[in-house]
Amino acid sequence: MLWRNDRWGLAAILVLAASWVAAAANDDTRRAIATLKAVNPEGRGNEDAAAAWKTLVQQGIAALFPALEAFDERHPTATNWLRTAVDAIVENHLAAGQKLPTASLEEFVKNTRFAPSARRYAYELLVGHDPTAKDRLLPGCLNDPAAELRRAAIARELDLLEQSARPSIRAELEKLFSYARDKDQVEAIARKIEEHGGRVRISEHLGCITHVWLIGPFDSTGGAGFAKAYPPEQARDTTGSFRGKDGDVQWTPAATTDKYGKFDLNELLGKHKDAVAYALAFIQTAQEQPCEIRVTSPTAIKIFLNGQELLAHEEYHHGAAFDAYIGRGTLRPGENVVVLKVCQNNQTQSWAQAWFFQMRLCDATGGALPLQQKALVEGRTKWVPLGFLAPSEPKK
Fold first, then answer.
1. What DSSP line would sit under 119-156, residue for residue?
2. How many CB atoms lie within 10 A of CB 52?
3. CA of 313: how far to CAs of 186, 298, 300, 305, 324, in Å?
4. Structural fold of domain 206-385
5. Across the 396 residues of the chain, what is the mean pLDDT of every consecutive 10-residue run?
6. What does pTM read for this prediction?
7. What is the residue extent of each domain of the chain?
8. Triad 187, 192, 193: Cα angle to 5°
9. Which residue, 59, 141, 224, 235, shows the most beta carbons closer than 10 Å to its own?
């Protein structure tokens, strides 16, 4: 009887010891992740991070999901540390002949509260070891907040529609179009819809600002205009006359027929070098909501919302990638004022003459918000949807 008591006492001690080891491992994982998340973009904390990285990797597969859960799109430097740690954890686990926890990876991918980059990473791991997971997961990702998963889901669905033998897939294409966010997919699906007798308006789908008031040019000799706050920078309306680069300037209404909302300032204000121009847009919403103001321009820009600077980027003739610049802010109920500052330098090369911008308002996925913009239509001011083009203008 004494032996039995000793045996159970030993078992209890072993269980307790195992729990202590697990708790210590969990603490090590938490501390390591906290250290990695504390690294800043300038590299402060890198030395501590290197040691924390080794500690995290040593925890093995048990640290996989805590590390993935710590991914944060707002802190790319820390996320890069975590990603390389996950790479090492997975590599070591597979090298030891162990299988990945595919069921848990699948549940992780489905959970939209985790960072898009973490879910995409988990998806790639999962599909690499279970190719059938693609057909299980992607149908549920057509409206996913993770851009890469949404893109993959839309590409898969478009392929399936094109391979189908149905005489018309217009309705399915139009539904797929509503989910599309990437410019190339938007264009591809729009063309397919036209082939099947339909028509969509890209400018409205993307939430492009198509009606603005312009003013300029103001002086920017030597690039000084980028930092100088000319009066229109804090504009609340279109009143007033201001001293510009070549004389007095006033606000002038402008509209675009471009399907992406492109405004060519060379055409609208004249060709100027060492210059600053401002575009003013009035946006109306029924309720407070976060928004992204996405801008495309080959030159230096600043974005303001209701007088608050959201983004500044000073670079010239570096290309003009779609949605290159994103200012994040919050729209208030009622009327909001968006001001875009667009600068031009004095380069003389032919490729450095471009001076234009595109601007759109959307949610974090790039989807248009239910907003209205103020427009001057047939001599009257009225509220119209974002992306609105006059009836006689191209609707493509």
1. HHHHHHHHHHH-TTHHHHHGGGGTT-SSHHHHHHHHHH
2. 24
3. 27, 11, 6, 16, 10
4. Jelly Rolls (2.60.120)
5. 47 38 63 89 73 94 94 91 95 95 95 96 95 95 96 96 87 96 96 94 96 97 96 94 95 94 96 97 97 98 98 94 96 98 96 96 95 92 90 42
6. 0.85
7. 206-385
8. 95
9. 141
